[in-house]
From TrEMBL:
Upper classification of the organism: Eukaryota, Viridiplantae, Streptophyta, Embryophyta, Tracheophyta
Pfam name, any one: PPR_3
Protein name: PROP1-like PPR domain-containing protein
PROSITE patterns: PPR (PS51375)
NCBIfam families, sorted: PPR
Keywords: Repeat, Transit peptide
Highest taxon listed in the record's lineage: Eukaryota
PPR repeats: 339-373, 378-412, 413-447, 551-585, 586-620
TM ranges: none
PANTHER family: OS02G0170000 PROTEIN, OS07G0661900 PROTEIN
Region (Disordered): 1-75, 795-815
Domain PROP1-like PPR span(s) in chain numbering: 243-368
Amino acid sequence: MGMAMTSSPQPPPPPRRRRSRLHSATTISAPSANPNPNPKAKVIPLLSDVGRLQSATPTPTPNGNPSSNSKGKVLPLLSDVGSNPSAIDYYSRVASNLAGAGRLGDFLIAAEGLRAASGDAGFAARINWRLLSRGVVAALREHGLPHVLEFLRDADRIGVHATVMLDADASDAVAAACRQLLDERIMAEFVEAIEALANCGFFVKGIVDPMDVLKIFVRKRDPDMAIRYARIFPHSQLLLCNTMEAFGKRKELKHALKVFGALKDQLGGINMFACRSIIDICSHCGSSVQARIIFEGLLAEKITPNTHVFNSLMNANAHSMSYNFSVYKHMQKLGVRPDLASYNILLKTCCNAREFNTAQEIYEEMKKKEHDGILKLDVFTYSTMMKVFAEAKMWKMASNIKDDMRAVGARLNLVTWSSLINAYANSGLVDGAIEILEEMIRDGCQPTAPCFNIILTALVKSCQYDRAFRLFNSWIEFGIKVSLSLEQKGSLPDNFTFCEEHPGTNGGTILVVPFRPTVTTYNILMMACGTNDERAKSVMNEMKRNGLCPDRISWSILMDIYGTSKNRNGAIQALRRMQRVGIKLNVSAYTVAIKACVESKDLKLALHLFEEMKAHQLKPNMVTYRTLLTARSKYGSLKEIQKCLAIYQEMRQAGYQAYDYYLKELIVEWSEGVLSSDGGNRNFYHLDRKDERNESFNLFLEKVARFLQKDVDQNQTVDVRGLSKVEARIVVLSTLRKIKEKHLLGRAVQDDLVIITGHEKTSYTDVETTATDVKHAITAVLTDELGLEVFVGPESRPPVSSKLRAPSRPRRPQGMIKITVNSLNHWLKRKSARDVQ
């Protein structure tokens, strides 16, 4: 459909020129070729025909209305929009049809021109939202989500809030496109899309649950993107707190702290709930130091924490009694009133520190506050006190706690009964523990496997292995029988489980409560096998027959039994069996296997397992290092001693506390091995753990360790200047031991061994030692204990015996001791002949 311009022939139109968006929107005429999307509606002109039809547009009459020609209706001019309301309706329909045809770019041009001409945004209400929604859906299908997001941003800029005008179908289509990005895990584009929609007023919360998206970022360990996404929503504070807790559950403390920092910046201060949450996360991650730093930050900003923050901080530091009590005093100083949880945490702290008297004092203070109506003790308080007395083996005090509970009408729960059973068991009163178990059943509390395990553990600790097996078999076959009165039976809860019921005396009844062992139960029985590895293996097989799968602890116990019985092969087979059944080996499993090899004196295999453990990215712990170091008496060759010293230095570099006592014994035993007697003169060293406090001597041991690890030539000069008699003896004997090791490998001695003693004085353990004393000590061990020929000074002199004293006329010591090559070779031959015999 087209409109006739005139009956006379027209000259060809001039070449089209690129017009600005505003100029293109000034005059709109009907199209001549583009189809109308709605055949039943009136034909709407398109912007592409403006230039061709502008010359034929009639001139408006003085009243402002356009005139008509004889063959067509004249359209209103865009310049008349401001004074002609009907023109706004007309051009709004034009823009709506453009949008309905999917021509969102042309729609924006028309809308922007219309707004510029009309001077207000009232035209936006005249836009046909159905056509606009249809165009958005079509654009999504043809061009994708980025094109639609760009359109929505531009429309919002010119005053057309398209997101508000979209119908349900269009909104669902946009949301589905966003969810597709999420399903494909294109997270960066998804967040950008949600941000753009939120800025345009779209209801983004209905697209997907925000926490589902934040959990994805938590799994990806991407706190930056999680923070960016959470800030899109009005309830971003709650989302950030939940994200912080989600990182905390995964023990990602670094990322949780980053989210906490973002939350603090957003709020412009510290939120007490967020502060409490991050301290709890620090506690869960085992970082009490970081919890203290956060608390100190509060105090530095002159913020008074509330009771909950104080409680979280004390709970995070429950292992440090001194710190927690200082926090408690600071809490009182600030006027923050402690609640029941505060006192319970202090009781827990005393229990961890085994400060039973202090715990009892706090408990008495709590009872006084309860009497005054300030506090109301709960089951946790009583259970904690029972645990305190159980570990202190104060079963009478624990029993008094039970009486206190019943006096105030508090009912004992499973934890309380278990603590009471443990109190009797730890005190060696196994029969009393069984009576408490029966009383627990009569009180209507269902016993679980851990209650039975406590009694079995007490029997194993007291080495009553046979009784443990007899009691276990009795429980398995007959259960535990308890006599109940009619009143007690009537008070049993509905979910109380028992397998049999028999009539009892005085109208009562006898209940048979079943015993269902767990993997832990069988692990206890395996420990009751002592060194009988076959019996332990049969217990494990019985566990499998009952449908239970042995865990890592089960296999570790079996390996330990193999090691104790010096069955190295059995321990290694158990270790490999663990791998085959799919149990991931940890440091404890390797340590037990290494211990088994050490017990069997197979140091080569122990060191191989040590290296294998590190190859699997497992860091040795203190027990691993000590297991290898305590085998010092089994190291005989220089190669083995060097490996042991390397392990020692590795332990120091790993940050573990230095057990220099073991290093000292290792070096002493190895160096004294050159002497004829077993162990040499060990009393000379005064081996005790007090030497660990002498820092200078420990540094000396480090130097000796590095010296022994060097593979240098055996013919060398030994400098002992500045050393004490003990230190000089260790250095000289270590050097001779290295010479002996090399001689056994076929390397002969070719030069003299020279020992430089010097003229200086040294101080060791507050006793001044002169070079003469060091010289006499060295000559004593060389001549008397080793039978070597020793010369003092650079000149050739007859052999010097340690029994000779200095001449009557004092002379300046030469500061040098020499052992000739002939003397060394003769000594080595004697040692070799003695070793053969």
